[in-house]
């Protein structure tokens, strides 16, 4: 293969992410390395540089890029190596449509991967190991709750309707995936989202948070919040 894409990430480990690219009859794959792996001591990186026919100048380019990433906190850099030409740093300013498509495809896949790695909002109450497929579904439910709860008070029955399931089906799936009741799941998401809002420092009153998370009365919200976290929500506003 004469074309190689090298993706360097500052911290996030994404070696298992497999993103094929296709242009006409050509198929390419990104080669992923964290900054810590960019070393002659790393067997996989050493093999990549051999396959891609890296020169000392190419290696120096990668070294400089790594230093800049650490200095500026840049999370991702994509490099391109074609045959005997020098390694090129790609950016969204490159005019080649294939480069733009390649970077776009990678970033889309990376966002999906990172999303899958994020813990569930309700993680603290989960009592069973959550399988990958169930995790995606629960994350979708949490997004549905976050999107709707600021407009209306959500019940388990309403959540079931939004999930295109009967109440019994929703209950069965949530209990199977998380080991808790749908009511407890819904309440936990509400309270965790409220806690995040309070911690953000962008809210002005407990009533604002309560209303934004589907609670009709601030007093009810405050009571449930203190029971769950051992601290009154008003303490976050001091």
TrEMBL record:
Limits of the HTH araC/xylS-type domain: 139-238
The keyword NAD belongs to this UniProt entry's keyword annotation: no
Keyword Cytoplasm attached: no
Superkingdom of source: Bacteria
MF terms (GO), sorted A to Z: DNA-binding transcription factor activity; kinase activity; sequence-specific DNA binding
Keyword field: DNA-binding, Kinase, Transcription, Transcription regulation, Transferase
PROSITE patterns, sorted: HTH_ARAC_FAMILY_2
Name of the featured protein: Two-component system sensor histidine kinase/response regulator, hybrid, putative
Source organism (scientific name): Microscilla marina ATCC 23134
């Amino acid at each position: 293969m004469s074309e190689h894409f090298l993706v360097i990430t500052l911290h996030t480990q994404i070696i298992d992410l497999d993103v094929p690219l296709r242009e006409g009859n050509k198929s390419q794959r990104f080669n992923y390395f964290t900054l810590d792996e960019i070393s002659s001591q790393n067997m996989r990186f050493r093999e990549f540089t051999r396959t891609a026919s890296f020169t000392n100048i190419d290696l120096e380019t990668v070294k400089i890029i790594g230093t800049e990433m650490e200095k500026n906190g840049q999370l991702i850099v994509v490099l391109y190596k074609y045959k005997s030409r020098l390694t090129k740093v790609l950016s969204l300013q490159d005019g080649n449509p294939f480069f733009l498509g390649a970077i776009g495809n990678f970033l889309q896949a990376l966002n999906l991967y990172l999303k899958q790695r994020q813990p569930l909002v309700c993680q603290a109450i989960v009592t069973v190991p959550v399988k990958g497929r169930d995790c995606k579904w629960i994350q979708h439910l949490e997004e549905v709750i976050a999107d709707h709860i600021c407009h209306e008070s959500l019940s388990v029955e309403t959540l079931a309707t939004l999930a295109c399931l009967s109440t019994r089906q929703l209950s069965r799936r949530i209990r199977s995936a998380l080991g808790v009741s749908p009511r407890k799941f819904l309440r936990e998401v509400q309270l965790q989202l409220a806690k995040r809002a309070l911690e953000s420092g962008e809210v002005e009153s407990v009533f604002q948070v309560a209303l934004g998370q589907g609670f009709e009365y601030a007093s009810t919200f405050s009571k449930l919040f203190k029971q769950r976290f051992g601290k009154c929500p008003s303490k976050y506003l001091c």
